[in-house]
Amino acid sequence: MAPLWSSASVVLSLSLGAAAWPYSTYSSMGFQPPQLEVNQTGTTADGLLFLGPRGGVQPAGQAALIYDNAGNLVYEGPEEVTANFMVQQLNGSDVITFWAGDMLDLGFGYGTVHILDNTYQEIHTVTLTGDFVTADGQTRESYIDLHESHITPQNTLLVTAYNVTQHDLTSVGGNSTDYMLDSHFYEIDISTNEILNSWSALDHEDQIPLTTSHQKIGVSGTSENPWDAYHINAITATNHGYLVSLRHMWSGFYLDHNGTIIWHISGDTGGDFAPSGNTNFSWQHDMRVHNETDDGLILNLFNNANTGSDSEGDTTGLSLSINLQDKTVTGLKSLSDPNDPIKSVSQGSYQLLGADEDANVFMDYGSISKVKEYDGNGNIVFTAQFGDDNAVASYRGYRCQWSAVPFWKPSLYVNRTSDGASVYMSWNGATDYDSWNIYAPSSVNSTAGPQIGNATRTGFETRVDLTDLPTNYIQVSALQDGNILGSSEVVPF
Ligand SMILES: *[C@@H]1O[C@H](CO)[C@@H](O)[C@H](O)[C@H]1NC(C)=O
Ligand SMILES: *[C@@H]1O[C@H](CO)[C@@H](O)[C@H](O)[C@H]1NC(C)=O
Ligand SMILES: *[C@@H]1O[C@H](CO)[C@@H](O)[C@H](O)[C@H]1NC(C)=O
Ligand SMILES: *[C@@H]1O[C@H](CO)[C@@H](O)[C@H](O)[C@H]1NC(C)=O
Ligand SMILES: *[C@@H]1O[C@H](CO)[C@@H](O)[C@H](O)[C@H]1NC(C)=O
Ligand SMILES: *[C@@H]1O[C@H](CO)[C@@H](O)[C@H](O)[C@H]1NC(C)=O
Ligand SMILES: *[C@@H]1O[C@H](CO)[C@@H](O)[C@H](O)[C@H]1NC(C)=O
Ligand SMILES: *[C@@H]1O[C@H](CO)[C@@H](O)[C@H](O)[C@H]1NC(C)=O
Ligand SMILES: *[C@@H]1O[C@H](CO)[C@@H](O)[C@H](O)[C@H]1NC(C)=O
Ligand SMILES: *[C@@H]1O[C@H](CO)[C@@H](O)[C@H](O)[C@H]1NC(C)=O
């Protein structure tokens, strides 16, 4: 494919560089997650860090990853490209959800949404089928795009999808038989994969004119490189329907349940609202609704303010108050780190870490492989980096409270030494254990053996060196407050 100036941001952000960033290795597991460089300067909210790094990391580190504040790995999922890895509530229980699949260099993807319980058992695999036309001509088992995997209060799932379609693009500098991407979203029944509702931006061309797109058609417009007029990237369930973010329109659209557009907010003109204060945004991600009433709502978003071809300013976390009575939009908050201004050309997320507007805010900077947390006054309290800028990306990143006891056993690797053995213990994904007991069973089939050592947990993997061992077998147990939560296999050495 020829270089595409019009989607330079996409080429920059999704065709990511070679691995150079330092990574960790372990003896008890074959993982190679990127190391986190952490600067904590204040009090963070509770919770662990959920990231999905890709590109520029070791293949055995490109996965859904959980870290603690000190940068220790807590969990690594299967090796795959992921997005939206986070904790959500399903039917009143905490679950982890993430998208996995193919990300295309064009800036969208085809995949499935995985839902895991607090033992990491996959309890739902959500797919989307239909007569989708793909940019690479291949058919897929599921056409869920990477950009959204949001569980609604009704326990349904909101996802996005991109469909290639031929359209008259003469109004935007193309021709009458050009190809474009339509932006769809679907509300899906999680248990049955039944489509409960769907929406297409192109079906609303009268209210969302193609000429209002900020994405230049450039050399796009072919079936392999269709023009990405809208770039849908976030859907929130609202009191009356949905709030849809269209990045290339610099806009959010509030829809009725039936898909009718009720109002829209624009990052440069205000749209249906008169702007007051700092309300400008462009190329945004992760637009979310809070405190919705019939009189108004709070809109939080990740304001990239940049693409590869256009820079409006520094990337900010933006909080806006929309007044539906007097039709105004007012800037409440614009977050950035004065000591580390960032221009993120793609991706990113904004997470309010509580119900109050003055709760901490956690931001993932997308194409810049950093996460930052701000306190209620907008002061930076935490920064972590997991790759080189524009080489490693995480589409979104979150801080989530998560407590899990995996269905699998702890892992044990025993390395014989001249007078004993080095014992390496880990339990991928286990959040709440504080120590290890070490036993010397008499055979691989022996379930009990005398305890020969113990140790306080040290991060992901704990190492203990032992001498004068009574048998050639080791077994270990992970404990919390003296109670055994899980035991490894018996390992000969
Ligand atoms: C086992 O010990 C040897 C000798 O100390 C060392 O070279 C090797 O890296 C160790 N293996 C693992 C997996 O830690
Ligand atoms: C995708 O677009 C094609 C071509 O316009 C159309 O035939 C097909 O129905 C669309 N798919 C969906 C799921 O809307
Ligand atoms: C949620 O609970 C309801 C009622 O028990 C059940 O019918 C439904 O299948 C559950 N949904 C999911 C996604 O587990
Ligand atoms: C329209 O433009 C495409 C390239 O985007 C080209 O392949 C096609 O031949 C053009 N069609 C007409 C009718 O000019
Ligand atoms: C869809 O919702 C809008 C706004 O609530 C309403 O005016 C319109 O009549 C509805 N259309 C249909 C087809 O139900
Ligand atoms: C917001 O964007 C508009 C349109 O580009 C511009 O005229 C205005 O100066 C901007 N306002 C601020 C506060 O930057
Ligand atoms: C929602 O409203 C409550 C009550 O007015 C307020 O305390 C809280 O800060 C608001 N949350 C947001 C996100 O604005
Ligand atoms: C952490 O702080 C040091 C010293 O100010 C700085 O050099 C480094 O870039 C910072 N790293 C991150 C990830 O903020
Ligand atoms: C362990 O048990 C398995 C299955 O019962 C048996 O085949 C094997 O011989 C036993 N090994 C030892 C060392 O006792
Ligand atoms: C190890 O065992 C000893 C003796 O039972 C106990 O006093 C100590 O607290 C244990 N240490 C750890 C880290 O569990």
TrEMBL record:
<keyword id="KW-0732">Signal</keyword>
<dbReference type="Pfam" id="PF14269">
    <property type="entry name" value="Arylsulfotran_2"/>
</dbReference>
<protein>
    <recommendedName>
        <fullName>ASST-domain-containing protein</fullName>
    </recommendedName>
</protein>
<dbReference type="InterPro" id="IPR039535">
    <property type="entry name" value="ASST-like"/>
</dbReference>
<feature type="signal peptide">
    <location>
        <begin position="1"/>
        <end position="20"/>
    </location>
</feature>
<dbReference type="InterPro" id="IPR053143">
    <property type="entry name" value="Arylsulfate_ST"/>
</dbReference>
